[in-house]
Every structure is written in C-alpha cells, then in structure tokens.
C-alpha cells in the first residue's frame, strides 16, 4: 500500500476514546445532526450514491447520518465506525429498526474491516481529531473497493481563519491543516481525482452570539460563509495493492 507509516500510538487513540465517551454521556452525539446537517445535505448529491452501495461512516458518533443513509439507500449496507464505545452503544440503541445498518467500535488508524469492502467512505467533522490523519486516510484507502470514493467534510481547517480559535477549546490534540495538505494526504495514500471545495453553511445565524466558539455573531456569519471543507478522491479501479 502506498505511503506506509508507523502504527498510531495507542495512548493517543485511548485519549480520543475517553473524550468522546464524555461527549456521549453529555448527550452531544445526539446534537450533531442539527449542527452538521446544513453542510451534509449539499454534500450528499455530490457523492453519486447508487442503489446498492456499501458505505462506511468514520466517526459516526450516535449514528444520525448512518440512519439517514440507511433510510434513503434501502438496498445498500451502511456501517458506522467510532472509537467511542459509548457513542456506538447509543447508535445501536437508536437504530434497531434498520436491518441493513450496523456499527463497529474502532479507530480509523486500524479499521476493523477486510480490504476492498466499501464503495463509499464518508467522515463528517472527525478527521482533525484523528491521532494520525495520514494513517487514517491510508486505512480508508485500504478498505475501499477499487473504484470507490472517500469523502471527508470538516469545519476546522487552516484556510478558514474564523475557526482557528477553536484549537484552544479542544480537550484533545487536533490537526489544523490547509486544504491542500489534506488533498496531499489523499494523493500520498494512492487516491486519484482528488479535489477539494467549500460548502457554505446557509443556516440562520443569531443576531447575538454568546457562545465560546466565536467572538460574536459577525464572526460566526463569516465562518459559515467561508464554508466547510470537502475533500474527496477515488481509489483507482486497477489498484491491486
């Protein structure tokens, strides 16, 4: 496989697991749908999802996007993966009505899957928390079927200056990379047709903002106008490892 790198430090993965277990206990997994839907909905048509897909959602949290995909893609198989066992427990409890949907506990640095399985891999607001993004993208490349595609969507990236202050609020280390750096990691892992674009968040912005992520409503509005970063690429159909 192109660009092999050392295995991720298990202590870093455990640190991420503990933090997101804390999020799960606080009910933050269930909040992600309303937070992320405005940037996810414009992305889905770009993915050209077919009738019979096998989709992996990396960093699925409480499984809201997995359930959305399983509802729309009734002939497809959807798998959610999260390093947080507490998130996966909640995802499973909320998804008992979906026969084609399953969940796995595990980190992106060692995806518990055979090679060449998934036609699409998606990750929303997760990859900047990965202990080793290069390793994670290599693992996504490994589990994708030849001709399959990967789609990473994030709000925290260096090109958008209105999110840089988030880093000091995070309880675990995070990666603030340029869009071109993310694209470079895709290419180094073997992806072709790698592209990145912005997806603006058109949801309403409050007149007054009093949270901790932005200085004021104007900065929040500017951040949303810059948009989320979407990076995607294709695993060559001729790849033979």
Structure description:
By secondary structure, the protein is an alpha/beta fold. Helix content is about 35%, strand content about 20%. The chain has helices at about 10-25, 30-45, 65-70, 85-95, 135-145, 180-190, 215-225, and strands at about 55-60, 75-80, 100-105, 120-125, 145-155, 190-200, 230-235. Helix 1 crosses helix 4. Residues about 1-5 have low confidence and may be disordered.
Which key phrases capture this entry?
241 residues; alpha/beta; seven-stranded mixed β-sheet; disordered N terminus
**Termini separation:** 5 Å
Shape: globular
Mean pLDDT, rounded to whole units? Answer: 93
Low-confidence parts, pLDDT < 50 over ≥5 residues?
Answer: 1-7
Number of beta-strand segments: 7
- Topology as a string of helices (H) and strands (E): HHEHEHEEHEHEHE
Describe the sheet with the most strands: 7 strands, mixed
Structural class of the secondary elements?
alpha/beta
- Main sheet: which strands, in order across? 3-2-1-4-5-7-6
> Which bin fits the share of residues in helices?
25-40%
Helix count, DSSP H or I runs of 4 or more residues: 7
Alpha carbon gyration radius: 17 Å
User: What percentage of the residues does DSSP assign to strands (E)?
Assistant: 15-25%
């Amino acid at each position: 496989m192109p660009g092999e790198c050392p295995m991720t430090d298990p202590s870093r993965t455990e640190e991420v697991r503990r933090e997101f277990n804390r999020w799960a206990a606080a009910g933050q997994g269930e909040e992600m749908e309303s937070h992320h839907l405005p940037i996810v909905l414009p992305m889905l048509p770009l993915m050209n999802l077919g009738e019979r897909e096998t989709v992996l959602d990396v960093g699925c949290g409480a499984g809201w996007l997995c359930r959305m995909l399983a509802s729309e893609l009734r002939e497809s198989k959807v798998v959610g993966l999260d390093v947080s066992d507490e998130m996966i427990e909640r995802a499973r409890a909320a998804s008992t009505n979906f026969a084609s949907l399953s969940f796995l506990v595990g980190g992106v640095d060692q995806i518990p899957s055979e090679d060449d399985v998934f036609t699409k891999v998606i990750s929303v607001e997760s990859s900047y928390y990965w202990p080793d993004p290069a390793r994670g993208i290599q693992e996504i490349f490994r589990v994708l079927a030849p001709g399959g595609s990967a789609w990473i969507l994030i709000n925290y990236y260096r090109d958008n200056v209105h999110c840089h202050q988030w880093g000091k609020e995070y309880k675990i280390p995070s990666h603030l990379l340029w869009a071109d750096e993310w694209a470079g990691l895709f290419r180094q892992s073997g992806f072709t047709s790698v592209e990145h674009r912005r997806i603006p968040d058109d949801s309403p912005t409050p007149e007054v903002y009093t949270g901790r992520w932005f200085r004021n409503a104007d900065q929040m509005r500017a951040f949303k106008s810059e948009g989320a970063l979407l990076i995607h690429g294709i695993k060559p159909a001729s790849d033979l490892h």
